[in-house]
Amino acid sequence: MSKPFVCDVVSAAPSVTVDAGKINLIGAVEQSNGDFQIDDGHNVTIGGSASPGVSVVGQNVSLSAHGVGKSLTASGLDGASVHVTTDGAIIVVDVPSVGNAISVGDGGNVFVAAGGSGNAVISGSQVVATGSVIFENASLDYTSTMETYSNAATLDPAASVYNQLTNVDVPGLLNSSRLKINPAAGGTTIDSLFTNDSNPNPDGRVIEIQNVGAVDDVVLPNQSAAGTDGGKFFWGGDFTLPAGKGATLIFDRSVGAGSWLIVSA
Questions:
Q1: How many domains does the chain have?
Q2: What pLDDT sits at residue 179?
Q3: Nearest Cα to 201, choosing from 255, 155, 127, 265?
Q4: Could you tell me if 169 and 127 lie in one domain?
Q5: Collapsing DSSP states into helix, strand and coil, what is residue 173?
Q6: Which residues pair with 179 in a beta bridge?
Q7: The domain containing residue 182 runs over which residues?
Q8: Taking Cα atoms as reference points, which of 188, 192, 178 lies closest to residue 233?
Q9: Residues 168, 196 within the same domain
Q10: Are 256 and 157 part of one and the same domain?
Q11: Structural domain contains residue 51
Q12: Dihedral angle at the C-alpha atoms of 1, 44, 39, 8, nearest 10 degrees?
């Protein structure tokens, strides 16, 4: 049998009304057993830390936040998680022409696939990651008609030698897919590369290096003794990028102490 809804008034001028089957709660209202509460700040609490669970069921259930600067937040606290599940229906996230559908804080992941055959499908839209990660932990089939790497860091003018090139030398390198270098007169040599000076290079990190100079070379020495372990290059010999040329590198932690491999040039 359903439990009846019983409420107590806990503020000066609250009200409870039923209109066309909808319960409207205004002010601070609290269920007598403490499972349901709306405080003076219009914060709604259902259940609590000791509650085994709360379900909201209906043919059409709407949760809304109104007004500029207002927000609707679903939070998992004290190790709890937030799940949005479906038995086959489509989950739709509608966003206005200006705004973000999903924003992820530092260290967060946008998508995590724990296995199985689930898909993340983006059609006619964009995936934008700024300081965050789109992470996949299962097999991934990826098809794209066009890719655009808009985040580029530029080293201009470059010095003649960098024993360790980091995002301190190149602002924006941490979140960039391309590194554009205008070499010094006579050329620029980079002995090791760290996309984040305070952390190791992540395994599988891909970056494109482009020599945007008109005359001089960019040289990436093979396992240079002047470089720092965990950021050196592995090519079997020194790799030279002439003016106007570029190369794609991927970081592999299993090679030496971790090395940048040149996969295409």
A1: 3
A2: 96
A3: 255
A4: no
A5: helix
A6: 153, 209
A7: 152-264
A8: 192
A9: yes
A10: yes
A11: no
A12: -10
Amino acid of residue 218: V
Q: How many helices (H) and strands (E) does the chain have?
A: 0, 16
Distance of alpha carbon 211 from alpha carbon 225, whole angstroms: 23
One-letter amino acid at 13 equals A
Give me the residue label for tokens 């409207």.
24
- Overall pTM surpassing 0.85 (yes/no): no
Nearest to 153 by CA among 130, 169, 132: 169
Residues of the chain with pLDDT under 50: 1-5, 9-11, 28-33, 131-132, 135-137
Does residue 200 share a domain with residue 232? yes
| pLDDT score at 250 | 96
Inter-residue contact 37 to 31 (CB < 8 Å): yes
Dig out the tokens for 50 from the structure.
């000791």
Question: Do 97 and 35 share a structural domain?
Answer: no
Same domain, 106 and 26: no
Contacts 24+ apart (CB under 8 A), 240-245: 241/209, 241/210, 241/211, 241/217, 241/265, 242/211, 242/217, 243/183, 243/211, 243/213, 243/214, 243/215, 243/216, 243/217, 244/211, 244/212, 244/213, 244/214, 245/210, 245/211
Rounded CA-CA distance 183/156 in Å is 7
Domain stops at, among 92, 127, 145: 145
**Residues 252, 258 contacting (CB under 8 angstroms):** yes
Residue bearing tokens 């089939």:
141
d(CA 140, CA 203): 17
- The residues pairing with 17 across neighbouring beta strands, listed in sequence order, are 24
Q: Is there a domain that residue 73 lies in?
A: no
